[in-house]
Every structure is written in structure tokens, then in C-alpha cells.
Design a protein that fits this description.
Layout: H1 14-33, H2 37-43, H3 58-82, H4 86-106, H5 115-130, H6 135-154, H7 160-163, H8 170-173, H9 181-204, H10 209-220, H11 226-251, H12 257-274, H13 279-298, H14 304-324
């Protein structure tokens, strides 16, 4: 995973990239036209649904993604419930991190792993605590975004030749949960970085714990290898710093409404095109995307203070995730 080379292509990424772009931009555009832009920003988080099972066929994806959507909605509900207490949010970050990691690794879901369940929990707690959006309305908007993303993922089934593809047996799509030796070590790393990240967050700023832990979990990924942890940590740090600079430039345009929908859709499309080939380059697009979306939902879009905080949180989290890779033995066959 070099900083100066692209990994080999694993097949066309534009279908998933297009679905992800539509999932994030259409809710914002529609709700803006209806005069309810804040709800569109919340619903756009439902686009995380289509980031899973990207390598599966359409007939198989529509059987997997409802479980992902359900997990995201549950994570959001827990975040909303905990939003009034920094201590409950911290406990929730640890619980959601460990439980979602156990399920992702146990059912062998593959990338992006537990990351987005943790982010949705933290974002939900943060947005509900810092904006006037009623909790139930927040959950309804996010659930609507998840359902829209499911519809986008199912759209290719309107093509007869796609619909005729033979579906894989369900036990192959989601095999009986079990944790291999590598999976158990990955789960241990997630638990450690979640606890340490929350403790650090309580000292730095309790509202930022989810970002520190999310950054660490993103570095851990789904590959059990010491070298991969160190490389992903370096990619995460450098990509986020450059991405924060991109956010600063984009924020000068003061995007809102339809322009913001178009901008976020373009960023999400770019992320999905490059994320499997170059992680640092993907972070250059992911960082401004998440900062713009979070800022729009909380009403502080364009805040340079938030950008600096995210850089600090990411460096701390990435260092935690990379350091946890030392738990893998040097002799590991995957190292």
C-alpha cells in the first residue's frame, strides 16, 4: 500500500460510486426544494448503506443491504438516546464499536467494516445535541435516507439480464457467524482503541470521541496485518491533512442547497472510485465530504476550528489504530 502507487483494480467501481453519489445528493436536493434542507442533510447519511457489499451482484446486494440499513438505524437510535450525556455517548461508542465489529468480522461482511456504524452513532448523538431537530424526526429522516439508498441499490434489477442472475445461497452471503484467529485479534484491537480513544476524548473534548475512535477503526480495517496497520495509519494522517485543506477551500464557496448536494455527490463518487486503490487519496475526498455534511447538519459549515479539530482527532485515532497493529505477531502469514 504505497503512498506513490495505485493498487490493482478489482473491477469496475462506477456502479457503486454512482449509487453512493445518488444516495447522498438526491435527499439533499429533494428536501432543499421542499424547503427542508436540514432533513436532507440527515437523510444523506443513509447513503452509507450502499457502501457495503460493493463486489456482490445486484440480486445479492438487495438481500444483504437491508441488514446494513437496520444496523445503521439502530446505531442512530442509540446515538440519539445517549445524546444528552457525554458519559453515555462514550459508553455507547465503545459498545457500538465492539458489537458492530463482532458482527462485521463474524459474518465476514468485508470492507468498510464497523466504521460507519460508529460514525452514525457519533454523528447522531452530536447532531441531536447541537441542533433543534427533534429526535424522532431525526431518526425518521435517517431511516428515509437508508430506504432511498436501498431503492437505489435495487434499481439495476429493473434490467432483465441483471434480474435473471442466479442468487447465491443465503448462507454464502452471510455465513454462520464465527471468529477466526485473525478476526479475534481484529476485534481485540477495536475494543482497545475504542476504550482508549473514548478516555482520550473525555479529556480532549467529549463531543469528539466518536471521531477519534472512528479514525482508529478505519486504520484497523478488515486486514489482520502489522504492516497494513502502519501503512493505513500513515495514509489516514496524510490524507486527512490534505483533505482538511480541500475542505477549507470548498468552505470559502459557502455551499448550500443544490450546490452542496452536487458537491457532496461528486466527492462521494470520487471516494468510491479510488478507495480500494489508494487509501490516502480517498481520504482527500472523504474528509471534506464528512466535514461539509456534518457542518451542514449542525449549522456550522465552513468552520476552520472544526477542520483543525478533525485533523487533531484523526492523527490521534490513526496513531492508536496503527499502534494496535503491533498486537499482530511478526510471523503472521498475512504480514
Amino acid at each position: 500500500m504505497s503512498l506513490f502507487a495505485l493498487s490493482p483494480s478489482r473491477g469496475p467501481r462506477w456502479p457503486v460510486a454512482t449509487q453512493a453519489a445518488l444516495g447522498i445528493s438526491v435527499p439533499i436536493a429533494v428536501m432543499t426544494l421542499l424547503g427542508q434542507a436540514p432533513l436532507g442533510y440527515i437523510a444523506a447519511s443513509g447513503a452509507f448503506t450502499v457502501l457495503f457489499a460493493g463486489g456482490a451482484s445486484a440480486v445479492d446486494r438487495v438481500r444483504i443491504l437491508p441488514f446494513i440499513a437496520g444496523g445503521l438505524i439502530v446505531s442512530a437510535a442509540l446515538g440519539v438516546t445517549a445524546s444528552g450525556s457525554p458519559w453515555l455517548v462514550g459508553i455507547g461508542v465503545v459498545a457500538v464499536s465492539v458489537i458492530s465489529a463482532a458482527l462485521c468480522f463474524g459474518f465476514r461482511l468485508g470492507p468498510p467494516g464497523p466504521l460507519f456504524f460508529v460514525l452514525v452513532f457519533g454523528l447522531s448523538a452530536h447532531v441531536v445535541a447541537s441542533s433543534p431537530t427533534p429526535p424522532l424526526l431525526y431518526l425518521a429522516a435517517l431511516a428515509g435516507g437508508c430506504l432511498f439508498s436501498l431503492a437505489v441499490a435495487a434499481a439495476p434489477l429493473a434490467i432483465p439480464r441483471v434480474r435473471r442472475r442466479v442468487a447465491r445461497p443465503f448462507h454464502e452471503l452471510l455465513p454462520c457467524p464465527s471468529l477466526s484467529r485473525d478476526a479475534r485479534l481484529l476485534l481485540l484491537r477495536v475494543a482497545i482503541v475504542a476504550v482508549v480513544g473514548v478516555l482520550l476524548g473525555l479529556v480532549i473534548d467529549p463531543t469528539r470521541t466518536y471521531w477519534i475512535v472512528g479514525s482508529a477503526i478505519a486504520v484497523i480495517g478488515v486486514a489482520a496485518a502489522r504492516r497494513a496497520a502502519l501503512q493505513r495509519g500513515l495514509h489516514r494522517m496524510l490524507g486527512t491533512v490534505v483533505g482538511a485543506g480541500a475542505y477549507a477551500l470548498l468552505a470559502l464557496l459557502h455551499p448550500s442547497g443544490l450546490w452542496l448536494a452536487l458537491m457532496l455527490g461528486a466527492l462521494q463518487f470520487a471516494v468510491e472510485l479510488v478507495v480500494v486503490r489508494h487509501y490516502a487519496l480517498a481520504l482527500v475526498f472523504i474528509t471534506p465530504l464528512v466535514l461539509l455534511l456534518t457542518g451542514a447538519a449542525t449549522g456550522d459549515i465552513g468552520s476552520m476550528q472544526v477542520a483543525v479539530e478533525r485533523i487533531v482527532d484523526t492523527v490521534i485515532g490513526a496513531a492508536l489504530g496503527a499502534a494496535s497493529g503491533l498486537l499482530h505477531p511478526r510471523t503472521s502469514r498475512t504480514d
